[in-house]
Amino acid sequence: MSASDDLQPRGDARRDGVIHPEVIASRDESARSQDGERLQHAEGASKPIAAKAPREAQPRGAKIRGDRPIDQAEAAERFLAAPLHQKAHDARLWDLRTKRDTAAFGIPEWEELREIASQIKTHTLANLDRYLEEFEANAKANGVHVHWAADGAEHNRIVHGILKDHGAKSLIKSKSMLTEECGFRHYMAGTGIEVIETDLGERIQQLDNEEPSHVVVPAVHKTRFDVAEVFARTMGTDPENDDAKYLAESQRMHTRPLILEADAGLTGCNFAIAETGTVVTCTNEGNADLSGNVPKLQIHSIGIEKLIPRIEHLGVFLRLLSRSALGSPITQYTSHFRAPRKGTEMHMVLVDNGRSERLGMEEFWTSLKCIRCGACMNTCPVYRRSGGLSYGATYSGPIGLIIDPTFNKRKYSTLPFSSTMNGSCTNVCPVKINIHEQIFAWRKVLAEEHQIPLLKQGMMKAAGQVLSRPATYRAAIGAADSALKVLPRFAIYNPLNTWGKGREMPESPRQTFHAWYKQNRMTKAGGKKTDAAK
Amino acid sequence: MNVREETLARIRRNRPAGDHPLPEVPDFAPLVGQDHVAEFGERLKRMGGRLADVIPGADPFASVRERLEAAKVVASAVPEIAGNRDLGAVARPQDLADVDVAVVRAVFGVAETGSVLFTQAELQVNAVAYLAQHLVVLLDPADIVVNIQAAYRRPDFAHAAYAVLHTGPSATADIEGVLIHGAQGVRSLTVILIARSV
């Protein structure tokens, strides 16, 4: 077989991928191929990872107090205080990142694909009005009912209205970050219409009354013990049985009658094709196809930024999406819903919810290119060590830091500070969003708009005065040996600086780089030393 | 103005300035070798699918006979296999909940990924491909395209009300990364390489 598309991680990657020996499982339950090879497609781990007993309570997410700023650091601290959860989470997501690298390196044109995908998205967003009109016209010609929702509340009212019109009592749905963003499940809780999540991870989260912690693997912060506890409590499974197959099979048997009896089905949308009016979903479990093909009423919720012009462009995006997300060449199911089945009704809801305003934000509009692969989350050291729920927002990790403040500047004002600014998110983004630069830009915007707590503002102002004048800075650190010693201790170790927590700052070198350079590489006259001058 | 017009007006007001042309998508060199049939089978197996051995001259369905004979309910959408559940007579998709094995023919296969395509024409009832416990797929070796790019140049996607690429069976690893087949859909997907009978 062609070695260029080898899906197995290279020997070194596999060995080096072990970052937490404490969470390497003793038994391996993953499915095998017909030739007996260990499989790792879909979101399967490339090596067994399990948080072993003794049992450890699952750390919960950030405390939500209305519009008050989320204290991500506080929630992260509780996550770090649960070492088995934290290490299993870190190992699992680093494994996805490693699988992503192997898959990306297997395609010689990977960088070209990223560039083309980015350009297609830029073009579409710059002409979004035209493509939405084209999409709507084609969907209507296909016999689809098209709705427009200005915000999340309107989306919920529209979907509720469609369900009421059909006398629906239950709705099966596949995972959709858009419906999470709209708070759809919470809204529906008061309507008497039951909403049933059918993705395993999302169902676990629904039964535990938690939001998804990751855009691709919603229950990745939970161990099998946590899942066993949730299922025992909500489905009556054996609380002592934490076998992953038993748990997954129990959920299948429990959910299937609900799928068969549902009056309506709802899916999200990965790509909406303007030239055909098609909604495309990329899934592994087959639950989106059940939602779209079993009940006689189907609804698709679409964020308006999901548009792409033509079918042929799927040939670019599909090659990037699953490889970036999971390291798999494709998801198990790539589904194209274009027109209703005979005797059924199909609705599509186009949701804005702040997207058209974001389009006008000069520094931030390219975040609309996001295809929700989660690669930036998997690679982020902060995300892997703090868990998605610590962000207290629908979107967590690096992409969340730049999207969430567009929804609520006050509530999410602290999130752009939950980054090491290492730029890894930008490097793995399949549509080349400059994520870390936008994180930095948000810090400036939030500071200018006084959304940052006073202590942090004062600290930054003091640091800024020193850092903005090179001569003052050099004089200061020359005397003190190091900037770490110039900055007051409270600035480094105060509760607002997440990076001072749980670690001491590194020992400062005896000599600054600037002083070393001046001594070793500069001539007396101040010019750069050349060989001739030696 | 209604919501639609307000949304479009906001987009027109806010959309980024400048010329952002739609890029041409070049024809990328295939990742797979010349033997598309072998490449397809190899990739299908890595995605959890099964490839039936077909020995020339012998019964092409030999490897699934046991499964078919053990099944109480077989729903067949192909002339090669006689099922005992007539898909043409199914009133509601829910009536297929008890199907053990479904047999369908793929429109085409994709060598790069090991995927097969179905539309509502092949499935007859779309839900059969998810409600059945096991799926047996007939694929003409002549119908294998080289890669995903080539797949999306086919006309099927623009015409079908529903089109779906299946790559192996239903799968999940939402619990600690343990890969499990048969999350909500079929527990297995077996491809038999056999030319179209007509």
Mean pLDDT of chain A, nearest integer? 89
Report the portion of residues of chain A in β strands: 5-15%
Indicate the structural class of chain A. Answer: alpha/beta
Radius of gyration from the alpha-carbon trace of chain A, in angstroms: 25 Å
Can you count the beta strands of chain B? 11
Taking the sheet with the most strands of chain B, its summary is:
5 strands, parallel
Helix share of residues of chain A? 40-55%
Overall 3D form of chain B: globular
What's the main sheet of chain A like? 6 strands, parallel
Number of strands of chain A: 10
With strands numbered from the N-terminus, the spatial order across the biggest sheet of chain B is 1-11-6-3-2
Number of helices of chain A: 24
From the helix content, strand content and strand pairing of chain B, which structural class follows?
alpha/beta
The CATH class of chain B is identified as Alpha Beta
How would you explain this protein's 3D organization?
- The complex is a heterodimer of chains A (534) and B (198).
- By secondary structure, chain A is of the alpha/beta class.
- Chain A has 24 helices and 10 strands.
- In chain A, strands 1-10-7-4-2-3 form a 6-stranded parallel sheet, with helices on both faces.
- In chain A, a hairpin with a 4-residue loop joins strand 5 (271-273) and strand 6 (278-283).
- The longest helix of chain A is centred in the first third of the chain and has 23 residues, at 83-105.
- Chain B has 198 residues and is α/β, with parallel strands linked by helices.
- Chain B has a single domain, classed as Rossmann fold (3-Layer(aba) Sandwich), CATH 3.40.50.10420.
- Chain B has 7 helices and 11 strands.
- Chain B has helices spanning 3-14, 36-46, 62-70, 120-123, 128-131, 148-151, 156-159; strands spanning 50-51, 74-76, 101-105, 108-110, 115-119, 134-139, 144-145, 162-166, 171-172, 180-181, 188-193.
- In chain B, a hairpin with a 7-residue loop joins strand 9 (171-172) and strand 10 (180-181).
- Chain B is globular.
- At the A-B interface, helix 3, helix 4, helix 5, helix 9 and helix 11 of A face helix 1, helix 2, strand 1, helix 5 and helix 6 of B.
- Strand 9 (333-337) of chain A pairs antiparallel with strand 8 of chain B, so a sheet runs across the interface.
